[in-house]
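The following block was generated as part of the benchmark described in Methods. Ligand: magnesium ion.
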Amino acid sequence: MKTLITQAEIAAAVDRLGKQIAADYAGKPLTLLGVLHGSLPFVADLMRRIDVPHRVGLVQASSYRGTATTPGEMRIDTNLLPDITGRDVVLVDDIFDTGRTLTALIDCLAAENVNSVKTCVLLWKDRDPAEGVTLTPDYHAFRIPDRFVVGYGLDHDDEYRHLPFIGELPAG
Ligand code: IMP
Ligand code: MG
């Protein structure tokens, strides 16, 4: 497997993001909301780099991938969602690809009376967003080419999430 981003590069970027979020949210009721399962390592590392008081919660989003022309069905499960009324929420996900997941989550959180919602992703793919998506991530660590990557939470068929680096699977 080809390494695209090393463990040390990830650590440095997460440190940078943590400092930036801490500065932006000092004195605010911040809740980091990790999107399961891909954000697990990222949110766990990021929360320890944000040295202002904050809460951490989880929400689940799964997209059943459709064909190239038909988007898959998006399912959002809010059973684990904490009370975020009046909170300043930062949604944390592994990757911004088409943007459909974070767009759907933001729509879903609109019913929760939050004070604000921003988004933070480790990776932002260099591609056109899906039709109807106007969102761009507020915080991101790396822009990457439009290739399929795994590791540090990102999976292929639920495998490879445990890798401490971001790698590119060989084609085929
Ligand atoms: P989006 O809704 O298209 O922005 O994609 C977000 C979700 O698709 C992520 O949370 C991932 O689960 C998945 N995804 C998109 N690109 C990749 C990739 O290159 N590797 C692994 N998962 C990906
Ligand atoms: Mg996935």
